[in-house]
Specification:
By secondary structure, the chain is mainly alpha-helical. Helices cover about 85% and strands about 0% of the residues. The termini are far apart.
Length: about 290
């Protein structure tokens, strides 16, 4: 009786085990078919390939490098550029200008006033600091993004002075568009017309910028059709990022400023630089996948 009972129990356990294995195998097959069906959808496949290309190009590390270089070289350059040009068209300091552009609350406006020096102070000392920052980090930012773009597009990298020259040319264009974007909100028009003019102008600037980007960064010949696709994708995403900055940054500055004061403003600028850098490398990855999916 005992042996019969053990045999029956063993048989029952065996049937349960076989049923569990069949059930798991069936669910794995269902999941596999669902995954294959999802990847057959073009948008999902494109997203998956873009994420993979971003990782292959070490996009997170490259974005960090570019963001750091932006923060320590391009941001001082922007401040110096404002100090130089504002002497021609405005007596307003950088702090009040930042408060007006981003429409921050009075508490954050006071933090801006205390954080940013006067234009005279920037001109007196900032030119030396900006020069040293550009010499120390400008080359890193230039080469980092050139290498990221070429890796995403799977083209040969330029090296040495050529990589630096291409990167500097690209960042010069970036800086010019940034300046245009800020000056557009000082036009003597109604708020609605001002926004329309700014949006159309920035969209055209971004389209032209990303159309030229492959030729600037890649040492290889790029077809016109590929540059047009890059312009449409990169220009569209960049314009959305520009719009997002005007809606997100006011709260961004207020959050960081209320928590950390003047240091918080610096943290906000640094963190947004990283977001922008991630966007640039993501655009490179996406356009690279569109150019060569495999």
């Amino acid at each position: 009786m005992r042996e019969s009972s053990q045999s029956t129990e063993g048989s029952t356990i065996g049937r349960i085990d076989r049923w569990a294995k069949r059930s798991i195998a069936r669910h794995e097959d269902d999941l596999g078919r669902a995954r294959d069906a999802a990847f057959q959808h073009r948008s999902v496949e494109l997203l998956a390939r873009t994420v993979k290309r971003f990782g292959e190009a070490d996009g997170a590390a490259r974005s960090s490098s570019v963001a750091f270089s932006l923060f320590v070289s391009v941001v001082p350059l922007a401040m110096l550029g404002y100090a130089v040009t504002s002497t021609w068209w405005s007596d307003e300091g950088l702090g009040p200008t930042m408060s007006r552009l981003f429409e921050v609350d009075p508490a954050t406006a006071r933090i801006f006033d205390a954080t940013f020096p006067s234009t005279d102070r920037i001109l007196a000392v900032g030119s030396v600091i900006t020069l040293l920052s550009l010499l120390g980090s400008g080359n890193d930012a230039a080469q980092s993004f050139v290498h990221a773009f070429c890796d995403c597009w799977r083209v040969d990298r330029p090296h040495g002075i050529r990589a630096t020259a291409r990167g500097v040319a690209w960042f010069a264009a970036t800086f010019a568009i940034f300046c245009i974007g800020q000056m557009l909100f000082g036009l003597p028009f109604s708020p609605v017309l001002e926004w329309v003019i700014a949006l159309v102008t920035m969209a055209l600037c971004n389209l032209a910028f990303w159309y030229a980007t492959p030729s600037i960064l890649s040492p290889q010949q790029i077809d016109r059709s590929e540059k047009v696709r890059t312009a449409l994708i990169g220009g569209g995403i960049s314009t959305v990022m520009w719009l997002a900055a005007h809606f997100v940054l006011p709260n961004w500055f207020q959050w960081y400023g209320s928590a950390f004061g003047g240091v918080g403003v610096a943290i906000a600028i640094a963190s947004w630089s990283y977001v922008v850098s991630l966007g640039w490398v993501a655009i490179a990855a996406l356009t690279g996948v569109v150019r060569s999916p495999s």
